């Protein structure tokens, strides 16, 4: 088995904010791209979300089958950054959560203050500045950038979000016209917006060779307001049609990388929230089963 995808290589906040010091951090990012290329890496999954990479209001929501999974309810969102950090830390089971590393978020309020003048347009401008610098290097060293959607895909705490839907993807791909400026289509993150047609998005962007990496997972909406909890991968366990998602990939001859994503903690596993070993293993067997069925029934 070869290691060919890295997730994630975090982007320094000075780059996202657009501070003069960003060039120093971009230079370090470029060196990382070169180093990863030498190690055989073909894809870097990254995000351009201010402050935190993802957010849930309950890291251990109890499901009817006795398992637990992460949940998001808008009404239960902590009211300030300090309460948010305390909430995530208390529910982490002692693990370091991806995107919530304590050393990075020790001064969370300072980070929020640093972003106070960064709106959506400014964040897009800063993304373009970053892409203009790194994509030529990616082309030279054959490493594809795969931007991950915002999770959840909507503004929170006044922070801008720029990868929420199809229109955002069209805008991002035009920032630098290259197959090395690509996307990680996370069906869970994009699926949290009930207006996103995931199979249609796949059918539009895969043929353009802009999707080197897929996160395929399910979620379940609990009300009309869009609150949700994460679930097991099968369609019957959530609100997303996993068969149609995989069929869209199959129909477009997708040859990129796919992995299962967040799931439940099952069988008394006391692990990192969202990253239970057993349910993700069940998830990949389910996805492989769907793919085999699609292969054997194609016309």
From TrEMBL:
Recorded superkingdom? Bacteria
Pfam families, per the entry: UxuA
Its EC number(s): 4.2.1.8
Cofactor(s) annotated in UniProt:
Fe(2+); Mn(2+)
Alphabetical list of InterPro entries matching this protein: Man_deHydtase, Xyl_isomerase-like_sf
What Gene3D superfamilies does its record include?
Divalent-metal-dependent TIM barrel enzymes
GO BP annotations of the record are:
D-glucuronate catabolic process
* Catalytic reaction equation(s): D-mannonate = 2-dehydro-3-deoxy-D-gluconate + H2O
Q: Name one GO molecular function term.
A: ferrous iron binding
Q: Which UniProt keywords apply?
A: Iron, Lyase, Manganese
Transmembrane annotation, as ranges: none
Asked whether the keyword Lyase is assigned, the reply is yes
Which SUPFAM superfamilies did the record assign?
A: Xylose isomerase-like (SSF51658)
Q: Does the keyword Lyase apply?
A: yes
What pathway does this protein act in?
Answer: Carbohydrate metabolism; pentose and glucuronate interconversion
HAMAP family from the UniProt entry: UxuA (MF_00106)
Q: What does this protein do?
A: Catalyzes the dehydration of D-mannonate.
Family affiliation: Belongs to the mannonate dehydratase family.
- Return the protein name: Mannonate dehydratase
Q: What is the taxonomic lineage of the source species?
A: Bacteria, Bacillati, Bacillota, Bacilli, Lactobacillales
Gene that specifies this protein: uxuA_2
């Amino acid at each position: 088995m070869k290691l060919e995808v890295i997730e994630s290589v975090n982007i320094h906040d000075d780059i996202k904010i657009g501070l003069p010091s960003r060039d120093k951090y971009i230079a370090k990012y470029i060196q990382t791209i070169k180093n990863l290329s030498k190690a055989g890496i073909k894809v870097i999954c990254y995000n351009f979300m201010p402050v935190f990479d993802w957010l849930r209001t309950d890291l251990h929501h109890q499901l009817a089958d006795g398992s637990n999974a992460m949940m998001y309810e808008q009404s239960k969102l902590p009211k300030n950054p300090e309460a948010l950090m305390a909430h995530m830390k208390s529910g982490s089971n002692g693990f370091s959560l991806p995107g919530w590393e304590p050393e990075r978020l020790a001064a969370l309020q300072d980070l929020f203050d640093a972003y106070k003048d960064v709106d959506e347009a400014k964040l897009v401008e800063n993304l373009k500045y970053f892409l203009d610098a790194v994509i030529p290097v990616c082309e030279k060293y054959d490493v594809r950038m795969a931007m991950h959607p915002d999770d959840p895909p909507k503004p929170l705490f006044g922070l801008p979000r720029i990868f929420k839907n199809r229109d955002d993807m069209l805008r991002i791909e035009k920032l630098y016209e290259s197959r090395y400026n690509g996307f990680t289509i996370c069906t869970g993150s994009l699926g949290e917006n009930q207006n996103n047609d995931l199979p249609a998005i796949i059918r539009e962007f895969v043929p353009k060779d802009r999707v080197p990496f897929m996160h395929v997972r399910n979620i379940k909406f609990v009300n009309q307001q869009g609150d949700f909890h994460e679930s097991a991968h099968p369609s019957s366990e959530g609100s997303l049609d996993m068969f149609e998602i995989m069929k869209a990939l199959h129909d477009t001859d997708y040859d990129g990388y796919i992995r299962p994503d967040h799931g439940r903690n099952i069988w008394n596993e006391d692990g990192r929230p969202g990253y239970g070993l057993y349910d993700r293993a069940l998830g990949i067997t389910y996805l492989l089963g769907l793919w085999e069925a699609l292969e054997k029934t194609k016309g």
